[in-house]
Specification:
This protein is an alpha/beta fold. It has 8 helices and 10 strands.
Length: 267
């Protein structure tokens, strides 16, 4: 049984969401596949690269909002492709104008073209500016517990550490750092980047992450719609396992799972 959202709410910036899976919109073959996969994922928060996607700024091109309407989805504009704080801030101010004052955004400031690892000094700078400017900032960052706490203290509404590099599909490479970030956080922690398959998403949720954001793992799968379905189930299963509390690990079972008393031939 999936936990009731009223008993186990996933709250971002004061709004409760039923799905803890957040998805991107890039790399699909067309808008039709985008819509079908996202519907199958059950995601309600959908992140969009403002620099790469038409949300109405180009009136003669297909508009993503025609297939992902604001009445059904929470659009999360992001700053993919930005490599300094000034560009990121400018991009999200444009997004707010395009979306009639929408203030929930995803900040990412990248460090280099090859790895897409975050530039944390520029990320912290941009986050401070955006929060002062009234934005509700969900922020992509390294899995550094100190930086994650600094972003929370600035006023970000969710902190989004990477599991591994964007688009790598390598899964969670440092669960210990993620655990520290989760344990000290007072805002939602959403794993962002590096998830490759359903087991990666489940592990993130079993650690206690509040949600998982992914794009490449679904969009570049051989069957994106089927993978979207798998990711939905993995996130739900991982959350249930976290709430249930796993058994302790031990090198061997000190006692059998079935009682030995009362067996035939035993007193």
């Amino acid at each position: 049984m999936i936990p009731n959202e009223n008993l186990d709410p996933f709250v971002i910036a004061g709004k409760t969401y039923a799905s803890r899976l957040l998805v991107g919109t890039g790399k699909y073959k067309d808008f039709a596949e985008t819509r079908t996969a996202i519907e199958e994922s059950g995601a309600q928060i959908v992140t969009v690269a403002i620099r790469r996607t038409n949300l109405g700024q180009n009136p003669n091109e297909p508009n993503l909002l025609d297939v992902l309407p604001l009445s059904k989805f929470t659009i999360l504009p992001n700053t993919a492709g930005c490599f300094n704080a000034d560009d990121a801030v400018r991009t999200l101010r444009l997004a707010r104008e395009l979306l009639d004052g929408h203030d929930l955004v995803k900040l990412e400031v990248l460090g280099d073209q090859k790895t897409l690892f975050p530039n944390m000094s520029e990320t912290l700078k941009a986050a401070a500016t955006l929060v002062k400017d009234g934005f509700k900032v969900m922020v992509y960052c390294s899995d550094d517990p100190i930086a994650a706490k600094q972003l929370e203290e600035i006023g970000c509404v969710a902190v989004m550490p990477l599991a591994s590099l964007i688009g790598s599909g390598m899964g969670i490479l440092n669960p210990w750092n993620l655990q520290i970030i989760i344990d000290q956080a007072k805002v939602p922690i959403v794993v962002d980047a590096g998830v490759g398959t359903a087991s990666d998403a489940a592990i993130a949720m079993e650690l206690g992450c509040h949600g998982v954001l992914m794009n490449t793992a679904i969009a570049t799968a051989k069957n994106p719609v089927l993978m979207a379905s798998a990711m939905k189930k993995a996130v739900e299963a991982g959350r249930e396992a976290f709430l249930a509390g796993r058994m302790p690990k031990k090198p061997y079972a000190a006692s059998p799972s079935s009682p030995t008393g009362g067996l035939i031939g035993k007193p």
